[in-house]
Amino acid sequence: MMTSGKDAGHGANPILKVDHVTKKFGELVAVNDLSFTVEKGQIFGIAGPNGAGKSTVYNLITGFYPFDGRIEFDGRTISGLQPHRIAQLGISRTFQIPQTFPSLTVEKSISVGNRFGAQGRFDPAYVEEIIRFLDMQAIRHQPTGQLNLLGKKKLMMGAALATRPKILMLDEPMAGSNANEIKDLMAFIRRINTDMGVTIIIIEHFMKVLTELTETLLIIETGGEICCGDPVAVTCDPRVIECYLGDAYAEGS
Ligand SMILES: Nc1ncnc2c1ncn2[C@@H]1O[C@H](COP(=O)(O)OP(=O)(O)OP(=O)(O)O)[C@@H](O)[C@H]1O
What is the pTM of this model? Predict the structure, then answer.
């Protein structure tokens, strides 16, 4: 079903509402009166050309910059809160280039995430659960700097999950991965959503990943919405083909 992200707040069970949000860097309008709603339990995709404002949207949700408009998470306004406070309320994110502490072991890295999310309290049983979920029991004492790219990506998601988020925001998780790794990561992301019950927002350039994985897809350009709705319908939208996908994609799909 094709809807508009502007219908913010009309979903059955919203967990995140971005409501008329604008962010300017000097004269540059990076995010322009953008509204969208993410439903609890969803995998929600965001795509658009380079410089469209996708990462800035993540930075606004996670509290890195002040902005105009309002963001509501799980029934409360989070606009203006500090990043660590937003993280502790239950929004966690990963980065396109895996950010790990190279000299820390797998187990310690997951523990750091757990301590941070629980504001210093530590739950070793939950750390154990995450290590099992990652299938990293055999390499728990290995420094994360020795992991391959796929391992680092999963470890970064595991450390984020150790904070016990309600929403996990992934920034181009497939970047630099081959076809087999993409398949593996897609299955892993599905398990985070279904087995752990975590709502997921994913920025990605691989449209096949978005059409297979997401339930709702938002396309933005120059900071504003182009369209939002069922991912297959969105990729057939002439405005999306014109501004982002190009005719070659439309002919090949
Ligand atoms: N801290 C900043 N200061 C000034 N301009 C910024 C800042 N962060 C982003 N921008 C600008 O805002 C616009 C949106 O950038 P953003 O990184 O959000 O786009 P994006 O869609 O994530 O792009 P990409 O797909 O290339 O990662 C760009 O023109 C960028 O140069």
Answer: 0.92
Distance from the alpha carbon of residue 30 to the mean position of ligand 1, in angstroms = 7
How many angstroms is it from 250 CA to the middle of ligand 1?
27
The DSSP line for the chain is -EE-TTSTT-SSSEEEEEEEEEEEETTEEEEEEEEEEEETT-EEEEE-STTSSHHHHHHHHTTSS--EEEEEETTEE-TT--HHHHHHHTEEE--SS----TTSBHHHHHHHHHHHHTTT---HHHHHHHHHHHT-GGGTTSBGGGS-HHHHHHHHHHHHHTT--SEEEEESTTTT--HHHHHHHHHHHHHHHHTS--EEEEE-S-HHHHHHH-SEEEEEETTEEEEEE-HHHHHH-HHHIIIIIHHHHHHH-
Per-residue model confidence as pLDDT tens digits over 138-175: 999 999 999 999 999 999 999 999 999 999 999 999 99
Confidence of residue 252 (pLDDT cuts 50, 70, 90): low
Q: Which of 54, 60, 61, 210 to mutate to test the pocket of ligand 1 (most atoms within 8 A of CB)?
A: 54
Residues in contact with ligand 1 (CB, 6 Å cut-off) = 25, 28, 30, 48, 50-56
Whole-number pLDDT of residue 11: 62
Which architecture characterizes domain 2-99+165-252 according to CATH?
3-Layer(aba) Sandwich (3.40)
Q: What is this model's ipTM?
A: 0.97
